[in-house]
Amino acid sequence: MDLHVGEYRPAGYQGNVIDLNGTRSGSIYQPVLVQNGFLYTVKFLAAGKWAAGDVRPRLLTVRLGKQKSVISISKPADWSPANPGWRWYTADLLAEGTQSALRFSSETSRTPDGPMIAAVSLYAPLGPPGPLSGVRVPLPPDLEKYIASRERAIALGKALFWDMQVGSDGRTACATCHWHAGSDMRLKNSVHPGAPGSNFGPQNPQSASLFVAAVGKYRGVNSVLKPDDFPFHKVLQPLAPADRLGQRSKGNPVIRDTREVAGSQGVLSEDFIAFLRGRVTDIGKPNLHPVFSSHGVNVRQVTARNTPTTINAVFLDRLFWDGRANRYFNGVNPFGDLDPDARVYSAAADGSMNRVAVRIDNAALASQATGPVISPVEMSWDGRRFSELARKLLPLRPLALQRVSSDDSVLGCFCDASGYGLCGKKTSYSQLIREAFRPEWWSGKRLTPEGFTHMEANFSLYWGLAIMMYESTLVSDRAPYDRWAMGDKSALSPLAKEGLKIFMNEGRCINCHSGPEFAGATVSRLRQEQSGEAGVERMLMSTGPAFYDSGFYNIGVRPTLEDIGIGASHPLFGPLSYTRQEQNGRNPEPKVDVPRDHRVSVNGAFKTPSLRNVALTGPYMHNGGMKSLREVVEFYVRGGDFPDVNRQDLHPDIRPIEGMYGNEFKVDALVEFLEHLTDERVECQKAPFDHPELVIPNGHGEFCRDAALDQLLVIPANGRSGGARLWTFEQTLERGMQWRAVSDRGHDAGYDGEPVNDIPPAEMIPDYPVKKPAEVTPKPPQDAAVSLPVYWQD
């Protein structure tokens, strides 16, 4: 071991450089005092020495007691003694006992040159996150440019979010997939074959083959999920690493694996033809779906990813599992400034209308809201546009098919005397839009070239911003953990406190689920001026350093090629990943430059969701393949399910947690802590989590000659004081669905809405042409085994 004072010193660094010779005897250590069971971070500069000509990577081991981390340092192309390529590295190591030693050693044999280190620091464990009430709810800084009344915008957003009349079938609302603590847990007809490739379908031949194979092993439509179906990837001993292909058996084989996904059922596969004024069901032409059909008729399609919760989503910088809901809202669709042609209409003083571009920051909620409502899988017949949805919806009385509690925290004051919907005379959708938005966004007196009014043409703008305003109120900041973080030390049980210690240290959970939000890629971490973090970072991944999108990680839930997540590219707008956008010359992250020749690790990466209320939002992971928090913890303890297959993009923290092997107490403690992140207002549906009545499809019952009839569940309306305590997904699997079931034939809400005499703008009643529907004849089944999807939404 040599001490270099000058030759290899990093620029601006005045301390010594330690050169660890290439033999294993090249090591240095320092005794330290630590706290048993806590995670410590070692931060240091490191570079390699290649003076002798051996170009192999230099391996450096960092140890704290028995815990170790191995770092591989590759030779830079321009290496020289004056420029050896110094970089910062970190290693997170768990302390065992109170007296330990920090040791650095070379692991590159048979060479006199080894790694070099400098500027070593050992950081004590971080404190636990604070209460969520300490985080500002992030909204667009220029909101007043669009919104005239926040109160009316919230009311409009809540009505639109829960209104079943929105769907082409007159039955599917946004809330249909977000009714249970902001997520979905229906059991029947909720399974997708899996391996979609990406949100836009397979993007390479291997993914296409995987999807065909998944369809070949699909259990079939209208099946019912059962407890024994979980987890989708099952090993004999869940709290120990599984046997790996090509390696000696450890006696822990995989005993079940399926590519299937527990998703959410949407609408039937139909082409949009037209609508009839006052009728909530659109006219469509059925397309017999090659997967989602039975008995010669279509069944409801199922999404290829599990439904994330809307609660606390306002704190996230981008939304959807793959981040395609951009932080910038363009007023039209989810893709923000990736879409250069997105335009809305602004009115001039003379009533003329101009097409303008908008770029509204901190508005991922608005971007997200515009996706599902026109998705041909989730809510719409294929081809329906926002302006056509507006023409159908604006004449209808809001929520006319659903009971609304007079004590609803937002809508109660607008409730109709009948108990159904809002009072059409004073709270039509048109009137709410006029009161919620500034006049320049709805008051134009002309028609667009396509024949739509200003209000119809701009409906996507109102839709996104109003739902954003409503969802921004869905903040659950009164969990037992919040009370504990504010000083009530009795708010966490003794077992939950042990779980918090594991969460912060041995379990490494805090590394991804950080801050009071217990999430990744949050606005508070990425967008505050004082934050040094950015949406793109460089990190030592499982196979070396790489750039990646902050808060989006490949954790080995499924093989990468089954669904590449944020690694996908939109067919028109290019990569979803900020990292790849940077490499392609865009600049979504001014703090970071990603050279074209540097490795990028984004394939198979998905958003790190919030853990708040996680006890209520099962099934878990992007594929919905785990039924309980225990199964989730077991997954992390054994080091993921596909660490070898996904190694190229795997997050470095996905490795076995040896101290938890077979340790039921530690698993129980961590689960107990996670349960203490539940806000009782969410669990009991109290304000602001109260809602109108909702009738949701839960699979199909009868199959008639030309239709599959829905089996329906009635979720009752409740006001600010709340309703029934929600069950967990595991309880639902064991007991059956929590809500009253009715048949399609027996449902008492009709298909026809109630028109109101208020067509936007009030001064002009445009002609409402309705196309004559083509003859509704299902397409014959295709001869091929399957045709690949165009869009699989999450």
Strand content bin:
15-25%
Overall structural class, as computed from helix and strand content, comes to alpha+beta
- Give the class-level CATH name of the domain at 2-123: Mainly Beta
Shape designation:
globular
Distance between the termini: 55 Å
Uncertain regions: pLDDT < 50 for 5+ in a row? Answer: 745-793
Biggest sheet record: 5 strands, antiparallel
Calculate Rg over CA atoms: 28 Å
Widest sheet: strand order? Answer: 1-2-9-4-7
Query: What average pLDDT do the residues reach?
Result: 89
CATH topology of the domain at 2-123: Jelly Rolls
Number of strands: 28
The CATH superfamily of the domain at 2-123 is known as: Galactose-binding domain-like
Amount of helix: 10-25%
How would you characterize the overall build of this protein?
The protein has a 5-stranded antiparallel sheet, with no helix packed on it. The chain has a 4-stranded antiparallel sheet with strand order 3-8-5-6, with no helix packed on it. The chain is an alpha+beta fold. The chain contains 15 helices and 28 strands. The chain has a domain at 2-123: Sandwich (Jelly Rolls).
